[in-house]
Write a structure and sequence with these properties.
The structure holds 2 protein chains of 2 kinds. Chain A is of the alpha+beta class. Chain A has a 6-stranded antiparallel beta sheet, covered by helices on one side. In chain A, a hairpin with an 8-residue loop joins β8 and β9. Chain B has one domain. Chain B is 66% helix and 0% strand. Chain B is built from 8 helices and no strands. In chain B, α1 crosses α3. The longest helix of chain B is centred in the middle third of the chain and has 28 residues. The two termini of chain B are 31 Å apart. The chains are: A alpha+beta, B mainly alpha. Chains A and B meet through α1, α3, α4, β2 and β3 of A and α1, α2, α3, α4 and α5 of B.
């Protein structure tokens, strides 16, 4: 480019930038004329300009330069000729803590690695400790540990300052993960390799040395020499030996160094007193290394996170279970890793040896010692994970309780009520604040607190109306936690108390009843739910009128129960409720969205997918907009859209919705929450539909087991899960097993589902397919014929299910050797 | 490329360099948790330390910062070259010392590419390159840059906008657009 041309470019660039965007094209046309090259240069620069204005590119560059400067300034650029008794041969690496040289020792004559610590990092007291600690390190002798030959303090070449150094065995090798990937080690080989690392770490622990800075780059695997493939742990105890006087381990490292180290630091390391650390911080780090070695990801990746935020996540956030990174890690491996990664040291393996032993048991197919976390422990973890969610629930509850107290009590009792509401607020605040992980009672959880609530409520023995309100609040919390039975107990007692005090029609009693009706419905007791919702609705309507939000909510719950019961008048009722909600509460209100959802569920269950789909999508959009992605209702909506698409057999479209629902369900609600399990079940169905059977099976099996526990073997949820699993068995070739299972499932569904529910026909059809695949044609024929009729009625002739049922019949007769009977069932235009 | 050709950069660069290093080491020890060392803050602090020197080759803070920006750029380029040389050595031996310091950084800037882009820009318009240098390597504001260069803030703004687009293009594509297609 000529100077003249450059100047023209700069000039035009400035002029164009000064113009409003819409005038730019015309200006460029006029100025560049036929000079396409000039124009493309300008346009490229303008694109870059846009990027600079709109994004943080400049900031990124500035920060990148800052990082470079940190690195550059922390390193001496000139290697000295000798350090102590060693002759420097070259530089091997550098970092925030110092420089590593390749050096020659004269007596004995050998090549070593010499790690020199920046003198600026050490105070005189720390230097003394450095000398002491390095004596201990010299006593470590293990084939899995890079031997420290000597540590010392020298003066710089110019005699200006002391320069502490380690002389170490020079390891020719690759970092652990790089080695494992390059050698394409399989899972067993990786576990075995880490088992040997555990041995080395255990040796050091027995000598009283904690590593404290374990990470894959500190574990090299030897490449050549007499024993290739040998893991060697480097830098043992260096972290301790070079520690500064400050108590907080974070202060001694530069930010850059910390970022490399942080993911491997245990919660007690990032938050606690370094003197309180024990060998279990190394067990944790080994757990992180194993996690990364197996799936290539860090359990908690601090990338893009400021250091304090990253530290908080290490303390609070549960890592994604290994089995969710890849299904092949489900079961024992996942359990082993989870145990090493426990937040509380007491729950981890007590030693590296125990950890290594479990790895070897797994490799040898022996039972492992680690146990999956108990359900109550998982709930505790859920509360810790979801502090924000629980806190929000508490806020809602507090305002609700206070509101009810103010509204529900007669004027002459107002003063007493006010005092009572203060006590309630304090009571609940105390109850929940001690569950906060940042508080002192770190392990006291919401669940435990709530479990002990009966005792505490004695404080309110003289004020049943207050006790009633607290129990209502606690019941609501349990609903949010998915603990339906516990919620039910609290709500029932709340109702009994308020009826006792204020009579049957007290607002609080009605409010609790409305929640209870909803719980009953979720528990599958639809008739009881309907009756209770009906009473509540009638009571609320009398007191507050037809269009009050409370009345509408109760009516909506009643409609939901009607729908589950398969009542003929359901649809009209659902539409009426929805219209009233839209008109009197607003189109985006929570109660309106629930009413829409109820209608959509009804439409879906009667096969009217076309009508249901836009409603469900609208709900999802509205919830994302008003509540965000992670609200439980939004997650539920993701599931509902996905599940609808499953019904339409549009599995590929359903997949992202259900994956999102399941992932966020695990994160926000916890894996054991009934909703999460439902999403998992649906996801399993989608995987089946996509013929990804290996991925589907664990979800479906887990789903059957959980439903059985939660609802009993004859509940419709359990039966549907069992039906899905049986269908999967057919797909993977276990036809006889599927045939054996279906009769009980179908008999159960006949009892559990309302008449004409399409699920029944769907499973009967699958049963028929099993018979056909098993060449039991006489048994297959009536099932396939009758279900085809049902599909024609429910879904219509063009629905994929109906067409599949038709094709299934054609194939039945072909397989049977009756092609003439098959002909009428063939798709037109197909042979 | 310096605005004061009578000053030999070799005289003051090591001085500024040493001061920056000293301050950096101290910062490593005293840095509170989660605070990234800010080189521009160091540059400003170095000025406070060095300003008192009688033999200082600068008249005021802005003048010093203009020198410091060049010093910082030299430091980074030297460092990046040294590291590139090490990598090219192809040595398979690894020592753990926090290699991830360099490798894991998401926002890594290719200092050598940045330097090349600056040189290509300086070949056409030295002032525009200097604006980038002052802002990136010493953290000068638009006004400070204007004072250091003895031009108006408007001129600096115009230069800045063009120069950063030029640099951005050079860093995000295969190189600075120096060849004119025929």
């Amino acid at each position: 480019m000529s100077q003249e041309r450059f100047e023209r470019l700069a000039e035009l660039f400035a002029e164009t930038c000064a113009l409003p965007r819409r005038e730019r094209a015309a200006f460029l046309d006029a100025q560049c004329g036929n000079d396409a090259a000039l124009r493309s240069e300008l346009e490229a620069l303008l694109v870059e300009d846009e990027r600079m204005v709109e994004s943080s590119v400049i900031y990124e560059i500035e920060q990148g330069i800052a990082d470079e400067a940190v690195s550059a300034l922390a390193v001496r650029s000139v290697a000295p000729e000798t350090i102590g008794p060693y002759r420097i041969l070259g530089r091997l690496g550098e970092g925030g803590m110092g420089v590593v040289y390749r050096a020659e020792q004269l007596n004995p004559r050998r090549t070593i690695a010499l790690k020199v610590i920046h003198s600026g990092l050490l105070s005189p007291a720390a230097l003394r400790r450095f000398e002491f600690e390095t004596e201990v390190l010299g006593r470590l002798h293990h084939p899995g540990i890079a031997q420290i030959h000597e540590a010392g303090v020298s003066t710089r070449a110019d005699g200006s300052a002391e320069l502490p150094y380690f002389a170490m065995e020079l390891i020719e090798g690759r970092p652990l993960i790089e080695h494992a990937d390059a050698e394409q080690l399989d899972v067993s080989e990786r576990l075995e390799l880490l088992g040997r690392v555990c041995d080395a770490i255990h040796h050091a622990h027995q000598k009283g040395v904690i590593h404290r800075d374990l990470k894959p780059s500190n574990i090299l695997v030897t490449a050549g020499g007499s024993r290739p493939g040998e893991p060697k742990v480097l830098d043992f105890g260096v972290a301790r030996a070079t520690e500064s006087d400050e108590k907080d381990p974070r202060t001694r490292t530069s930010a850059g160094q910390l970022i490399g180290t942080l993911p491997y630091m245990s919660p007690e390391q990032v938050s606690g007193d370094p003197d309180a650390l024990d060998i279990r911080c190394d067990v944790y780090a080994l757990g992180v290394v194993l996690y990364e070695l197996l799936c290539g990801e860090l359990p908690i990746d601090p990338k893009d996170t400021p250091v304090p935020e990253a530290a908080r996540r290490i303390v609070e956030e549960e890592p994604m279970r290994l089995g969710r990174r890849s299904t092949r890690f489900r079961g024992d491996i996942e359990t082993i890793v989870a145990k090493a990664l426990e937040k509380t040291p007491d729950r981890r393996y007590a030693s590296a040896a125990e950890f290594g032993a479990d790895l070897r048991r797994y490799v040898r197919n022996e039972p492992i010692s680690a146990r999956p976390a108990s359900r109550s422990y998982q709930l505790r973890k859920f509360v810790r994970r979801n502090r924000a969610f629980v806190a929000a629930t508490v806020v809602v509850i507090l305002s609700l309780v206070v509101g009810l107290v103010a509204e529900g009590i007669q004027r002459r009792k107002a003063e007493r009520a006010l005092a009572g509401s203060d006590r309630v607020t304090r009571f609940l605040t105390d109850l929940f604040s001690s569950a906060s992980p940042s508080g002192s009672g770190r392990n006291v959880t919401v669940r435990e607190k709530l479990a002990g609530v009966d005792e505490k409520l004695r404080e309110f023995a003289d004020q049943p109306e207050i006790e009633s309100r607290i129990r209502l609040a606690i019941g609501e919390t349990f609903i949010a936690l998915g603990e339906l039975q516990l919620a039910r107990e609290q709500l029932e007692r709340s109702i009994a108390l308020s009826v006792e005090v204020h009579g049957d029609q007290a607002p609080i009693a009605l409010h609790s009843r409305s929640h209870l009706a909803s719980v009953l419905n979720d528990q599958g007791e639809h008739e009881a739910s309907r009756q209770l919702a009906d009473e509540t609705y009638t009571g609320l309507r009398t007191q507050f009128g037809e269009t009050d939000v409370r009345t509408l909510r109760a009516r909506s719950i009643r409609a939901m129960a009607l729908q589950k019961l398969g009542r003929p008048d359901t649809e009209r009722e659902l539409e009426t409720v929805l219209e009233l909600c839209r008109e009197h509460v607003g189109p985006g209100a929570s109660v309106t969205l629930i009413a829409m959802n109820n209608l959509a569920v009804f439409l879906r269950e009667t096969g009217r997918f076309d009508e249901a789909e836009p409603i469900l999508r609208e709900i999802l959009d509205r919830r994302i907009a008003t509540r965000g992605d992670r609200h439980p209702d939004t997650i539920n909506s993701q599931n509902n859209v996905g599940f609808l698409l499953v019904g339409r057999q549009r599995y590929a479209e359903a997949l992202p919705y259900l994956e999102t629902a399941y992932r966020l369900g695990c994160e926000v609600l916890g894996e054991t929450h009934p909703h999460t399990r439902l999403y998992g079940n649906n996801l399993g169905v989608v995987y089946s539909g996509l013929e990804r059977f290996a991925e589907a099976r664990p979800f479906l099996e887990a789903s059957v087991e959980q439903s059985r526990q939660d609802f009993g073997p004859e509940h419709r949820m359990t039966l549907i899960s069992r039906g899905n699993l049986a269908a999967l068995l057919r797909k993977v070739g276990e036809v006889d097993e599927a045939i054996a299972r279906f009769p009980a499932i179908i008999a159960g569904l006949e009892r559990a589902l309302p008449e004409n529910h399409p699920a029944l026909a769907i499973f009967e059809n699958l049963f028929g397919l099993c018979y056909r695949d098993g060449r039991r044609f006489t048994e297959a024929e009536p099932l396939l014929l009758s279900t085809f009729e049902t599909f024609m009625d429910v879904f219509g002739p063009n629905h994929p299910r109906t067409r599949d049922a038709k094709k299934a019949l054609a194939q039945l007769y072909d397989d049977w050797g009756k092609p003439d009977l098959a002909d009428p069932w063939r798709e037109p235009g197909l042979p | 490329m310096s605005q004061d050709p009578d000053q030999n950069p070799d005289v003051w660069t090591p001085l500024v360099y040493e001061e920056l290093r000293r301050l950096a080491e101290r910062s490593f020890r005293q840095q509170p948790v989660g605070h990234t060392l800010q080189p521009t803050a160091l540059v400003h602090e170095a000025y406070l330390k060095l300003a008192a020197r009688d033999d200082a080759p600068w008249d005021d803070r802005t003048h010093f910062l203009a020198h410091a920006a060049t010093a910082m750029r030299h430091i980074l380029v030297d460092h990046a070259r040294a590291r590139a040389t090490e990598k090219r050595g192809g040595d398979r031996r690894r020592i753990s010392l926090d290699q991830e310091l360099a490798a894991d950084r998401e926002r890594e800037v290719d200092v050598l590419a940045l330097n090349e882009a600056l040189e290509s820009l300086a070949a056409f318009d030295e002032r525009k390159a200097r604006v980038i240098e002052l802002r990136f390597f010493a953290g000068l504001s638009i006004d400070e840059t204007a004072t250091a260069l003895g031009v108006s803030a408007v001129t600096v703004s115009t230069d800045w906008r063009f120069a950063r687009a030029w640099i951005g293009r050079a860093l995000s594509s295969e190189g600075a657009p120096t060849e004119e297609p025929t």
